Amino acid sequence: MAERIIRIAEPGQLADTVNVWGDVRSPGRYLIPRQTKLPELISYSFGPTGLRDRETTLDWSKLRVEVNVSTYNEQTDNEKIETFRFRYNEPLPKGIRTFRLENNQVISVQVKRKPAFIDYVRVVAPVISAVATSIIIVDRLGN
Known about the structure:
Largest sheet: 6 strands, mixed
Oligomer: single chain
Shape: elongated
Strand order of the largest sheet: 1-3-2-6-4-5
Distance between the termini: 55 Å
Number of helices: 2
Order of helices and strands: EEEHEEEH
CATH architecture: Roll
Radius of gyration: 22 Å
CATH class: Alpha Beta
Strand content: 25-35%
Helix content: 10-25%
Number of strands: 6
CATH topology: Outer membrane lipoprotein wza fold like
Number of domains: 1
Structural class: alpha/beta
């Protein structure tokens, strides 16, 4: 799911490796300095993507970002997931600025937005077209 390995830490610096997946501009496996915070890592990956599916206008107030940090404990064979949700036009949620990344965590970023009128048209229009075409074909075959 990652495109490349990205080194942010300097040679000789104590570092952790984490995976960044999802709706970021540069997903990959990152070699980051210890004590790196979650917002810094999202910045290293060039932030969440905003435009998709050939959209040209975007209402940033409707975009929501969900960041999941997955930590796997080999000793207990347990996985813990920490989730942060926020909107672009609101302050970052509590805890995200102080969240410290650890070695081998997986960070997934998902950008969501509320559907606009055009989204409903894109879904309904093909269905209406198929039904209308079927009606015309049946009418022509009946005559």
